[in-house]
Every structure is written in C-alpha cells, then in structure tokens.
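I am writing to request your help with a piece of structural work I have in hand. Here, with my thanks, is the record as I have it:
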Amino acid sequence: MCIDDSDNSPYWDLAVDEGSWKKPSLDVWQYSRCERLVNLVPVPIAIEHTGTPADYDIDAFSVPIVSRRLADLLIEIAPHEIQLIPALIENPGEWFVLNVLSEVDAIDYKRSVMTFYEPEHPRLPGKPRGVVQLILDPAKVGDHRIFRLHDWMVAVVVSEAVKRRCELAGMTNMKFVPVSR
C-alpha cells in the first residue's frame, strides 16, 4: 500500500511535525518498528503541502497517517495487527498514526529483484536498499492482513481482502502495488 505520489495528485502531503521529532522525547522511527507503544501521546502532524484531505498518507519516515474512516475499516479487518495513535492535525476530523504491529520475514530473496546496501554499511549491512520486484513466500505470510517486512520496513503490505475493502469503501490516496507470491 502506498500513496498516489503523482505530480497531479489533489491530496495533501503530511509529515510528523519536524519540530517535534527533533526533540529527544520523540523517536520518529518508533512508528515503523512494529512494536506496540505504551505511551500513546498524540503525534503532531504538519501539512507539508495543502490539498484535499485523504484517508491515507505516509511521510518520508514511512509513518502512515490515516483518517477515522480508514482506521475503523482496519480495526474491523485486522484488529490485532495495528495500533492507532491519535494524530494532531490542524484540520477537522479524527486522524491517527497507524502503527503496524506485524513484522513478517516473508521476502523470497531468490525470486525478488532488489538492490542491497554494501556489507560495510553501518546500520543496514547487506539489507535491501530498494525493491524492483517484490516476491513473497506465501507460507511465511500466513493469515496476516497487514504487515511490514522484516528486512525492508519501508513497505506496508496488505492482503487482497484489505485491498478490496479499501477500494469498495472508496478510500482516497491509496495505490496498491501488486506483490507476487
């Protein structure tokens, strides 16, 4: 699941407020580590570029920001795989940072087409740097409905059932990139 990032997208562009994440008390990466958070402090979100409010957006740090409408749909479909953290946006409505709790080691490295960080990289030695074609091992995916990938936490992967429900509900600013199995 990703955003419609075309140059003519009518939707707003959101980001965890830069002034907030530079404070030592806020770790912007905590929302993409698949760990349940205990101190659910509302997350300040800045509107980077104005546009039509959307049901889904993701910032540069892979932090998904969702509307109440999408949050309700995801709670119904995958209640144990997500955590919703209130987001503070200067816009009417309820907004949430979507903390995806499921992390699955499901990349089929033999069949996927990827680039990798060099073995000497200080944080991510030998880990995926970019993905051209992602292929997952269905046995490892199992019954997960929404998850991040163990070695490539950038992506938020959803099941076909979640995709269909989002499309039927007319969720905005969502683009689904097919993943092979």
DSSP finds four helices and eleven strands in the chain.
